[in-house]
From TrEMBL:
Molecular function terms from GO: kinase activity
Top-level taxonomic group: Eukaryota
Segments forming a coiled coil: none
Amino-acid positions noted as binding Zn(2+) in the UniProt annotation, renumbered to this chain: C86, C91, H168, H173
Annotated keywords: Kinase, Metal-binding, Transferase, Zinc
Gene3D superfamilies reported in the protein's UniProt record: MOB kinase activator
The protein, known as: MOB1A kinase
Annotated organism of origin: Pampusana beccarii
Pfam families, per the entry: Mob1_phocein
SUPFAM superfamilies: Mob1/phocein
Length: 223
């Protein structure tokens, strides 16, 4: 495996005021890059159920790692388009509709869940995900370095948390997404994400409850 997690420079000055993390770049020539190209090619075919399947002969951990980085980038970009509408005033709590509210804890720096605004929560969340992706012991980028035994549980936690950003965007900011004409992009990204986590059973059904109706709708269209 080549080095696949180079980081793009920060968008100048945006980090302090906006949650827009640097993009994870998978460099050309690495095995992960080939896997990403495979994923993009099969996505292009329009069959998302097929696109998420593990390519023949590939390592499951590696496939999940490459796609997790890709989803991080996609969600990063999607949330980046609506950050000006997601403020301490507009979103004083991190919610996904009236019935679901999320409190932040990462188990190390913040052990006891804290109630915070959506932009603050998402900043914590995306920073935490980025730290996991940058950790060579969790997401090894060198050829021959094995994935750790706890990789799958870490990947599941990352994806569970990334889902919450989609849930917040859909419930609280979909009107802004529509105004920006980003809804097709958001729907395709989310559908890809959902089919992926369903294929490998990566997120507990209860966690998906805030967007259950949408998930069923996206699934039924594809049968």
């Amino acid at each position: 495996r080549g080095n696949w997690k180079c980081v793009f420079p920060l968008i100048s000055g945006s980090r302090s005021s906006k949650t827009f993390k640097p993009k994870k770049n998978i460099p050309e020539g690495s095995h992960q890059y080939e896997l990403l190209k495979h994923a993009e090619a099969t996505l292009g075919s329009g069959n998302l159920r097929q696109a998420v399947m593990l390519p023949e002969g590939e390592d499951l951990n590696e496939w999940i790692a490459v796609n997790t980085v890709d989803f991080f980038n996609q969600i990063n970009m999607l949330y980046g388009t609506i950050t000006e509408f997601c403020t301490e005033t507009s979103c004083p709590v991190m919610s996904a509709g009236p019935r679901y509210e999320y409190h932040w804890a990462d188990g190390t720096n913040i052990k006891k869940p804290i109630k915070c605004s959506a932009p603050k929560y998402i900043d914590y969340l995306m920073t935490w995900v980025q730290d996991q992706l940058d950790d060579e012991t969790l997401f090894p980028s060198k050829i021959g370095v094995p994935f750790p035994k706890n990789f799958m549980s870490v990947a599941k936690t990352i994806l569970k948390r990334l889902f919450r950003v989609y849930a917040h965007i859909y419930h609280q900011h979909f009107d802004s997404v529509m105004r920006l004409q980003e809804e097709a992009h958001l729907n395709t990204s989310f559908k890809h994400f959902i089919f992926f986590v369903q294929e490998f059973n990566l997120i507990d059904r209860r966690e998906l409850a805030p967007l259950q109706e949408l998930i069923e709708k996206l699934g039924s269209k594809d049968r």
